[in-house]
Each structure stands twice: as C-alpha cells, then as structure tokens.
C-alpha cells in the first residue's frame, strides 16, 4: 500500500508575549476552539483549552490544533510550532483559511515530508521502566522480569513516556492497592499499570471520546478490563465511582474545579467520595501550593519533581 504523502509546516513566532494581540485576533477570526478542558497532558494530544497546558503561544496552538494535524510539536521553548498535514488539506476551504491566519502571525515555511513519515514516529516511542513496570509500544517485546503494560500510541497518544505519567506510576507503587479512579485517562497507561500492580476495580474517565476509544483498544491488547467512560469529572452532574485512590493527571485549572467534589459540604460533593489518596499531576513546579490549598481536608504526603513537572501525593486528614 502506498504511504500517504504529508506536508510539514514550521511556524516561527516572536518570543512569547510579543505580538500576542495579533495571534489572539487571528484565532478569533477563524473561530478556533477555545472551550474549557480538563484532560491536560495525560492523553498527549491537543484539547480545546491550550491555556491549561501553559503553552508559550496558546492562541497559535489553538489555530494549529483546529486543523487536526496528524501530529505537532513545540520547539525553541514554544516559540516554534511544527505540524504535519496530509497533502491536499491546504486546498480545502477551512484548511486554507486557517493556514492563511497562521501565516499572518509568524513566519510559516512549508516542505513535503519524505515517504514513510507516517511510520517514522515509531522511533520516538520507546519502552520505559518505572519501578516494577515496563511500558512499551507493541513493536517491542515484553520482559519477563517486569509487569507488562503495552500501549499502541499511534501518532496522537502517548506510551507512558511523559514525565507526568512516570510520576503517577512511580508513586502508585507505594500506595496500598484498592479501587482506583484514573481522571484524564488518555490512552489508559495509568489504568493498565494500576491493574498490573493489583489495584481493582479500576475506572478511567476522559472528556475526549478519541482518548477513551484508544484506551479501550489498548485494554484489549493488554487483556485487561478497566471501565472507561467519556465525561467531565469536574461537572457535579457526572457521577464518579467511589475509589480509595484517585489519580488526576490533568492540569491546574481542572484540578481546582475538581476540588469541590472531594470537599465535605460543597455543592456537588458526594460524602463517600473522599479517597484516602489523591495523586495530582500535570502541575508545574510553581503551582503546587495553589493546588494543595484547594484540598483543605488533605495533607501533602509527598511530592515528586521532574524537570518542570510536579506531582502532589495528598492523603486525607484523620
């Protein structure tokens, strides 16, 4: 079968802060989606509110993501965006309009990708060892000495290599096993690892239907049966299962909206929904105090830092 041809676009922007009004106006002009979101980095995929991920140029990211590229990445501390589209997308009315807007906010260069690029991303997805866990894409064999978690990432979803995912899995290995709720489950890495570690039952929730679909496919690959659902866990109208441990690998804004659901007496709170352990990930280092303060009935039992990322392990006060 002939590989699909792709085009690589490189957008070089002025340093963050400079020309932001032009970028915002361009995003508004093309109607780029900027709705709120809570799924954060767990799915390793763009979601409707890029600001929650603290991008250097959130409006530019919104424009790029509205094209639904096969893949994209940041470079130069976020001042360069590189994305890939199938050839011919630039001739579609919507695509041409967004690309024109992108071209007005920075220097946009275009180059055809070589044949086989759609398979080349595989070399960037390698196995990771996190304590007793072995996270791998399916083109690597399992290891008999480690607990196996296989995830078929595809170009849009991660295989557990992101720092925030590794942080969650490292801390989980020191938590007493029991029922677990994985918020922002993405492709299901945390859910599968939890089951391998002995947690049960395990539920995963994500507000991106594509992420949940990917997670369900990965569940079959692992021979595991967590329960996945599409929903916004910060919405009091969305029921949440009762779990001893809740992992929220999302971002500060949705974590703050999630907090009232675990506070006695708050609107939308469920009295039984007070897990013994809360693992809050997807936080930047400087956001720890604000996140912890949103859960006054919990205390910090531990924190794990990697690069710019912070995980807080909170335990319920007695």
SS-based class: alpha/beta
CATH homologous superfamily of the largest domain - what is it? Answer: Vaccinia Virus protein VP39
Number of strands: 14
Give the helix tally: 9
Helix content: 25-40%
Q: What number of domains?
A: 2
Helices and strands, in order, run as EHHEEHEHEEEHEHEHEEHEHEE
**CATH fold group of the largest domain:** Rossmann fold
Shape: globular
CATH class division of the largest domain: Alpha Beta
Mean pLDDT equals 81
The CA-CA distance between the termini, in Å, is 62 Å
Q: Largest beta sheet: what is the strand line-up?
A: 10-9-8-11-12-14-13
The fraction of residues assigned to DSSP E strands is 15-25%
What does this structure look like?
With 318 residues, this protein is of the alpha/beta class. The protein folds into two domains: 6-119, Alpha-Beta Plaits (2-Layer Sandwich), CATH 3.30.70; 158-316, Rossmann fold, CATH 3.40.50. It has helices at residues 20-30, 58-66, 93-105, 117-120, 163-172, 189-197, 209-222, 252-258, 288-293; strands spanning 6-12, 71-75, 80-86, 107-112, 128-130, 133-136, 147-150, 180-183, 202-206, 227-230, 245-249, 277-284, 298-306, 309-316. A seven-stranded mixed beta sheet has the order 10-9-8-11-12-14-13. Helix 1 (20-30) packs antiparallel against helix 3 and helix 2 runs antiparallel to helix 3 (93-105).
Quick structural summary:
This protein is 26% helix and 25% strand. By secondary structure, it is α/β, with parallel strands linked by helices.
List keywords for this structure.
318 residues; alpha/beta; Alpha-Beta Plaits; Rossmann fold; 2 domains; 7-stranded mixed sheet; 9 helices; globular
